[in-house]
Amino acid sequence: MHLLGIHHLSAITANAQKNVDFYTKILGMRMVKKTVNQDDPSVYHLFYGDEVGNPGTELTFFEIPRAGHNHNGNNSISTTSLRVPNDEALKYWKNRLDQHDVENEGIVEQFGRNVIPLKDFENQRLILVSDETNHGVSGGTPWERSAAEPNYGIIGLGPIHLTVPDLEPTEAILTKLMGFTIAGEYKHHDTGREVLVYETGEGGTGAELHIHVRTDLPPERLGRGGVHHVAFRVENEEKIRQYLDELNQIGIGNSGFVDRFYFRSVYFREPNGILFELATDGPGFATDEDADHLGESLALPPFLEDRRDQIEQSLKPIDYKP
Fold it and tell me: Which residue intervals define the domain VOC in the entry (predicted)?
């Protein structure tokens, strides 16, 4: 596989309104799509990103109102990084997070980069990572109407952290199937444990997985504040279908081809049980909405449009004024 980097990441929230408030009003991301979980249209699926939700900038949330707390542990996507332009931006963000009483660890170093580990209101584990020294996949463009200073704004997803009990089978899938290569290692600033770094495509902050090997943790129990899956960028539908054939040929169970309307996908689990998705760069989020008005109303893919009245009645309205 010739993957281009990280495409998007989907996490769990129990409160759509508070989620929108945190990610748009505090982190200053744009809500580029307000839609529903296509597998359960009774709940929201919210997408945040750069000015138009370019591939590699999309952080998404499924709302599960009765979801219990996430029980952090093994076999998990354990931390999500968000890229900012440079080290100067991190100073701005340190002040902004403190002003909004957002729990954070201050500026620390991780794999030769400055970062700020933080948590959202549901203890979602996040990291702001500086692109000061990035020479890999380019970031996106912050929304000029952001609640945060656009010059320091979030420009995409950064390294995604996985925690697994057994490195070998996950490494085999990453390197022998998905085209990742080892990029280095570092000691985690908090645990002191070694973290292995793998990269794909052009590499850099937008194309890395950081793997923590832990044999002392129970499996994670997914809930609010946890991550459901991570998706990787694929050029187009033709490539998706080629990769699907390859998964089938080597006997890896998968979802088959899935049309998400805004992109095309295939899902599969790597050997430690973490859900991976391959997703195309297009068609994109301006397919059914004007780029100037993304996220302002409920968007439904064509195959759900005839159920709009029923779906809207099941959803609690979100107060969002971009």
Answer: 5-131, 156-281
**Cα separation of 85 and 153, whole Å?**
7
Q: Quick check: 165 and 272 in contact, CB under 8 A?
A: yes
Tell me the pairing of strands 58-63 and 6-13.
Answer: parallel
Label residues 174-184 b or e (16+ Cβ within 10 Å = b): beebbebeebe
Nearest alpha carbon to residue 77 among 26, 169, 2, 12: 12
Taking the CB of residue 218, how many other CB atoms lie within 10 A of it? 11
In a domain, 322, yes or no: no
Q: Residue 170's pLDDT is what?
A: 98
Convert the pLDDT of each residue in 288-316 to its tens digit: 999 999 999 999 999 999 999 999 999 99
Boundaries of domain holding 280: 6-314
**Structural domain count, the chain:** 1
What residue type is assigned to position 24 of the chain? T
Q: Give yes or no for a contact between 181 and 207, defined as CB atoms under 8 angstroms apart.
A: no
- The CA distance from 219 to 222, in Å, is 9
- Report if residue 295 sits inside a domain: yes
319 in a structural domain: no
Q: Report the predicted TM-score, pTM, of the whole model to 2 decimal places.
A: 0.97
DSSP codes joined into one string, 50-74? SSS--TT-EEEEEE-TT--B-B--B
